[in-house]
Design brief:
By secondary structure, the protein is α/β, with parallel strands linked by helices. It is built from 14 helices and 24 strands. The protein binds uridine-diphosphate-N-acetylglucosamine (UD1). The site of uridine-diphosphate-N-acetylglucosamine has 21 residues, from helix 1, helix 5 and helix 6.
Length: 419
C-alpha cells in the first residue's frame, strides 16, 4: 500500500494551479443522468472519488469519454441499470447522489446504504424523507434503499440539519418533478450553486441557489450542455495553510477567492498575508510567527468542517492557546491522536479541541484516517523537523489531485512509495 514520506522544514515557494472542485464534480456527474443527451464537463479533477463516480455511471449504462485535458463527455441515452452496488457505494458516500436523478428520469433506483469517511454516523434520512414527500415509494431492504415513483411531484421540504448532498439530491430530483418544489434551510455551499447553474444550462428552472430557499419548477425533460466546474476551495485553503506553516510564499492560480471569505479572514487573523493579484489568483505568504485563532465549523458561509483538521495543524504551531469547535460532524477529531504523535499539544473535550501551540513538531510515522485528516498530516509533516511517514494515503487520493507532485513543485521534500 502507498505511503507518503515528508521531510519537513522547507519553506514552500512558487506557483501552483488549483484543480476543479471534487464536491462540485460529483453532483455534476450524477446530474448527467437527468438527460439522454450528451453532456460535456471540464475542469474535472483527477481523483479517486471522480473515478468511482464515473465507474458508477458506467455500470448504470453511461457512455463516457475522458480526455485528460479537455474533460469528460457523457451520454446517458443507454442507461438501463438502476442499481448502485455496495462495492462502489461503500468506498464513496457521495454515490447516494445518483438516487435523485435515477428516480426522477427512470422512476426507480436501488442504492446501497453508503459508507465513506468514518466521521460520525452520517445518515441519509433527509434524502429519503425528501424524495418520499415528492411521491417516491421507498423501502430499506438488505442494505439497499429501493425507491420507485411513476413521476415525482413538487413538494415543500424543510431540511434540518442543513445537508449539502441532501440539498443536491433533492434539487436534481425536483428538476423533472411535476410542479414546484421548495427546499427550505437548503445548503448554500458554492458547490450547490454550481450544480444549479449547470442544471439551468440543461433546461432546469431553479431560482435561489446559494440562499437558504431554493425554488424549482419541474420541466418535462432536460437537454445536453457544457459546463466548467468551479475551483476547489478546500484544496485552495489547504495549500494556503501549507504556505503558512512552512513560512513560505506561494501563488495559487485558477481559484475563487469569493468562496473562501471566512477561511481567508481566519488566516489573516493568524498573521498570514493574503493578496489577490488577479481575480482568480491568491498570493499567500507568512514571514511572521503564527497567531492562534479560535473557530467553530458550520455550514457555508461559516468555516468549513473540511478545513478543521488543517487549522488544528496551524494552531498547533501558533504562539498561544486556541479553541476549535466542530459542530457539523461528530467524531471528526480522529486525526488528533496522530498529530499528537508529532508533538502537537491538543486536548479534546467533547466537540471542542483546545490547542496549545508548541515551538515545533517532530516527524514520526502516522496513519491517515479520513480524507481531510490525511491532508492535515501532510501539512504537519511539511512543518515538522525530520521525517514523517504517512500510511493509508488512499484517503488523500480521494480528494487531492497529485498532492505530492504539486508540493514537490513548490519545493517540498515529499515522496510516495509503495514499499
Ligand atoms: C458534504 C461534503 C463533505 C463536507 C460536508 C459538510 C460532498 C460530496 N461532501 O458531505 O465534504 O464535509 O458536506 O460540509 O459534497 N445529516 C443528517 N441527515 C441526512 C444528511 C445529513 O442528519 O440525511 C447530517 C450529517 O450527519 C451531518 C450534517 O447533516 O451532521 C451535514 O452533513 P451533509 O451536509 O449531508 O454532508 P455530506 O453532504 O455528506
Amino acid at each position: 500500500m502507498d505511503k507518503i514520506i515528508v521531510r519537513g522544514g522547507h519553506a514552500l515557494r512558487g506557483t501552483i494551479p488549483i484543480s476543479g472542485a471534487k464536491n462540485a464534480t460529483l453532483p455534476a456527474l450524477a446530474a448527467t443522468l437527468l438527460t439522454g443527451e450528451r453532456v460535456h464537463l471540464s475542469n474535472i479533477p483527477h481523483l479517486k472519488d471522480v473515478t468511482t463516480m464515473l465507474e458508477l455511471l458506467g455500470q448504470h449504462g453511461a457512455a463516457i469519454t475522458v480526455d485528460e485535458r479537455l474533460g469528460v463527455e457523457i451520454n446517458n441515452s443507454g442507461v438501463n441499470n438502476f442499481r448502485a452496488p455496495y462495492d462502489l457505494v461503500r468506498t464513496m458516500r457521495a454515490s447516494i447522489l445518483v438516487m435523485g436523478p435515477l428516480l426522477a428520469r427512470h422512476g426507480m433506483a436501488e442504492i446501497s446504504l453508503p459508507g465513506g469517511c468514518a466521521i460520525g454516523s452520517r445518515p441519509v434520512n433527509l434524502h429519503i424523507e425528501g424524495l418520499r414527500k415528492m411521491g417516491a415509494d421507498i423501502s430499506l431492504d438488505e442494505g439497499y434503499i429501493r425507491a420507485k415513483a411513476d413521476r415525482l411531484h413538487g413538494a415543500h421540504i424543510f431540511l434540518n440539519p442543513v445537508t449539502v448532498t441532501g440539498t443536491e439530491n433533492l434539487l436534481m430530483a425536483a428538476t423533472l418533478a411535476k410542479g414546484r418544489t421548495t427546499l427550505e434551510n437548503a445548503a448554500k455551499e458554492p458547490e450547490v450553486s454550481d450544480l444549479a447553474v449547470f442544471l439551468n444550462k440543461m433546461g432546469a428552472r431553479i431560482q435561489g441557489a446559494g440562499t437558504s430557499t431554493i425554488i424549482i419548477d419541474g420541466v418535462d425533460e432536460l437537454h445536453g450542455t457544457q459546463h466548467r466546474i468551479i475551483p476547489d476551495r478546500i484544496e485552495t485553503a489547504t495549500f494556503m495553510v501549507a504556505a503558512a506553516v512552512t513560512h513560505g510564499d506561494i501563488l495559487l492560480t485558477n481559484v475563487d477567492p469569493d468562496a473562501l471569505e471566512t477561511p481567508i479572514q481566519k488566516l489573516r487573523d493568524a498573521g498570514i498575508l493574503v493578496e489577490f493579484p488577479e481575480p482568480d489568483r491568491i498570493r499567500v505568504y507568512c514571514p511572521n510567527p503564527l497567531k492562534p485563532v479560535d473557530l467553530e465549523t458550520s455550514p457555508y458561509p461559516g468555516f468549513p468542517t473540511d478545513l478543521q483538521a488543517q487549522m488544528l495543524v496551524l494552531n498547533s504551531l501558533a504562539k498561544g492557546v486556541s479553541q476549535i469547535t466542530e459542530t457539523v460532524f461528530e467524531n471528526r477529531f480522529m486525526h488528533v491522536s496522530e498529530l499528537q504523535r508529532l508533538g502537537a499539544d491538543i486536548r479534546i473535550n467533547g466537540n471542542m479541541a483546545e490547542v496549545h501551540g508548541v515551538n515545533s513538531l517532530l516527524g514520526a510515522p502516522v496513519m491517515a484516517t479520513d480524507l481531510r485528516a490525511s491532508a492535515s498530516l501532510v501539512l504537519a509533516g511539511l512543518a515538522a523537523h525530520g521525517s514523517t511517514t504517512i500510511s493509508r494515503v488512499y484517503h488523500i487520493d480521494r480528494g487531492y489531485e497529485r498532492i505530492e507532485e504539486k508540493l514537490q513543485a513548490l519545493g517540498a521534500d515529499i515522496q510516495r512509495t509503495n514499499s
